Amino acid sequence: MHYYRYSTAEVSCCYKYLLFSYNIIFWLSGVVLLGVGLWAWSEKGVLSDITRVTRLHGFDPVYLVLLVGMVMFVLGFAGCVGALRENICLLKFFCGAIVLIFFLELAVAVLAFLFQDWVRDRVKEFFENNIKAYRDDIDLQNLIDSLQKANMCCGAQGPDDWDLNEYFNCTLENNSRERCGVPFSCCAKDPAQTVVNTQCGYDARKKGIVRSTPIYDKGCIPVLEGWLPRNIYIVAGVFLGISLLQIFGIFLARTLISDIDAVKAGYHI
C-alpha cells in the first residue's frame, strides 16, 4: 500500500515549538509542585502512614499543591508530547482540558459575583472549621498565621472566633496555657521588636488584664472584603493575564491540529 502526497501543506515549526515551549514550562512547574507536596507529606509522616490524610479535620494546603501540580504535570506532558509527535489525540485532550478549565474559572467568577452572601457564608464556615483544626496540621497553622499577619486581622469575624479552638477557648474545662488567648499572628507588630514573641497572645481575651502588646480586633473576612474593592484592578489584571495565557495555549493547539489535519488530507492511498 502506497501513500501519495498531492498537497504542499506543512506543519508550522514555529507553532509546534512555541506550543512545546509553552507546555514544558507547565510540565516543569507541575514536577516542582508535586515534589514540594510529596516532600511536605513526607516531613509530616503522611507517606509512611497514609491514613493520616483522613484524620485531618481542617484544610491541608498540601492537597491544593498536589492537585495543581498533578493537573499541570498531566496537561504539560500531553501538550509537550502532542506537539513533538504531532499527536492529534493528545493535542485535542490538552486543548479541551484548557477550554474546560477556562470556562470553569469564568463560571466560578460569575457565580461568586451573583451569590455574594452565599460565598461569604461558605468562606466563614471554611475559616471557622480551620480555626478548630489550627493545631492539627503545621501547614494549616502556618497558612492561618501568614494570612493573619499579612492582613493584620484575627479570626474569621474577630478574635472571639478563637473560642472555637479547644486550646484557645475560655471555658473552665480548658486547662491549656493558651486558654482565652489567640495565636501570636494576631498580635500587632512592634517595629522595635526584632524577635517574634510566640507567647504574645496568651490571655489576650481575658477580661480585666492590661496587655503590653495589642491584638488585631478586626476579623479576616471583613478585612478581605475591604481589600477586594481597593485592589479590583489588580485582581482583574491577574484574571485577565491567566485567561490570555490559556487562550494563547488554545490558539497554538488548535492551529497545530489544523496544520496536521491539512497535511494528512494531502496524502491519498
Plain-language structure description:
The protein is mainly alpha-helical and 269 residues long. Helices cover 59% and strands 1% of the residues. It has 7 helices and 2 strands; from the N terminus they run βαααααααβ. The protein has helices at residues 13-43, 61-85, 88-114, 116-132, 138-151, 220-230, 232-265, and strands spanning 4-5, 267-268. The protein has a two-stranded antiparallel ribbon with strand order 1-2. The longest helix is centred in the C-terminal third of the chain and has 34 residues, at 232-265. The radius of gyration is 26 Å and the shape is elongated.
Share in β-strands: under 5%
Measured as a percent range, the helix fraction is 55-70%
Tell me the overall shape. elongated
Oligomer: single chain
Order of helices and strands: EHHHHHHHE
Low-confidence stretches: 1-6
Structural class: mainly alpha
Any idea what the radius of gyration is?
A: 26 Å
Output the strand order for the largest sheet: 1-2
What is the β-strand count? 2
Q: What is the number of helices?
A: 7
Biggest beta-sheet profile: 2 strands, antiparallel
Distance between the termini: 7 Å
Averaged pLDDT: 85
